[in-house]
Amino acid sequence: MPEPTPSLTIVVLVSIAALLGACSGQGSGDDLGGGACNAAVESVSGLSRVHVAVCSALDYPDNPPAGGQHYPVWAAYQSYSFPVPRGFWVHDLEHGGVVYTYNCPGGCPDEVGVVQALIDSLPLDATCTASEPRRVVLTPDPLLDVRWGISAWGHTLRADCVDADRFRRFYAEHVGRGPEAVCGQGSDFDGMPPCQ
Fold first, then answer.
1. Domain total in the chain
2. Residue 117 DSSP one-character state
């Protein structure tokens, strides 16, 4: 029996690797979990896009949410010092936004500063204007059951600490991929926590 040629062997190995990657649910692998912060990435499908009354109670099966029912108003793409209720920022996900959330009961200003610097260094969104250069929201989230969460439509990343490289790669992999491509500015709630 003739020996397989090196090129055939390479083709077979590449095909096997591609199949394993496709079956793992990890997509391109650009936002793989793990690392020192125990990052965990999940993908979700079949998400509802139904609008519900502003400030009504919502229950999401994922924490942080990857999408689902939401309010008809979305949060302005910016950073907040107060928790933005999930129904607002889930609408940002539908528009292709990426939302960075954190739950630090004792405070974590240094970590928030690192993530803010990371957000400020992200590439500008070519579909956005100078007044909203990136489709990103940063907000505390007291409902988050892990220190850091990142959401995009159909995808989440959870982490025990700031992993700048994985946080950046998650953004690059998922920004602009919501079911609606909207870069228009949402509500900043006049600087006051909504739904109080």
1. 1
2. H
Residue 35 counted as domain residue: yes
The amino acid present at 155, given as its one-letter code, is: H
Short-list 127, 166, 155, CA closest to 65: 155
Residue 196 lies in a domain: no
Whole-number pLDDT of residue 102: 98
Walking along the chain (196 residues) 10 residues at a time, the average pLDDT comes out as 45 34 40 88 97 98 98 97 98 98 97 98 90 93 98 98 97 96 91 96
Three-class SS of residue 167? helix
Q: Per the domain annotation, does 2 fall within a domain?
A: no
Host domain of residue 181: 30-191
Calculate helix-pair angle for 164-174, 109-121, nearest 10 degrees: 40
Q: Look at residue 94 and give its three-state secondary structure.
A: helix
Residue 7: count other Cβ atoms within 10 Å of its Cβ: 8
pLDDT value, residue 31: 52
Does the residue 17 lie in any domain?
Answer: no
